[in-house]
Amino acid sequence: MELIQQNPDIDAYLAASESVDHDHPLVKDVSERLAADHPDAYSYAEAAYAFVRDTIPHSMDSGDLRVTWRASDVLEQRNGICYAKSLAYAALLRARGIPAALCYQRLTEDDGSDPVVHGLVAVLLPGERAWARQDVRGNKPGVDARFSLGEERLAWTVRPELGEVDYPELYAEPHPVVLGALKAAPDRPYLDRTLPAEL
């Protein structure tokens, strides 16, 4: 699948914003700590990936009822669903000058029911010609996502026969439907009921 930049200006994928707030002191601090042991872009991107995937539980797995939608809040509260964890990873990448995009899949249950949009991050490392999608959702039994610049190692591979979709667009900001759902949710059970089914 060819990934498509929604914004042709690469600087859009380096910018700070309300949700990808890599100018926040906490994001900067985490970034600096990771970079101290991983000074080159490649090892830093992988270390930041592992940090978000492994040290910030997915709130549906952990049972945490809080909803986060800013990267700094995800890092502070150590909590978030896939969208929020993706914001944290994108912010950590952008904090080191590495272009990061938000992208999505549409996934379903095994019978094609209960469609939901799943959040990913695409990274463009120095010297690479193509974006590489990463999934920081967090592993669990049956899910084994890995950092990879070659063959994708996402949590799930889409099944078109069930109506699942890999959306090719790369967004500089969270899709409005996704951000709207996060901001409107007073708690995770409410968010569970209002997750977008498609973009």
UniProtKB/TrEMBL annotation:
Can you give the residue ranges of the Transglutaminase-like domain? 29-133
Instruction: Enumerate the InterPro entries for this protein.
Output: Papain-like_cys_pep_sf, Transglutaminase-like
**A Pfam family for this UniProt protein?**
Transglut_core
The signal peptide, as residue positions, is none
User: Which organism is this entry from?
Assistant: Streptomyces vietnamensis
> Can you tell which superkingdom this protein's organism belongs to?
Bacteria
What's the protein name? Transglutaminase
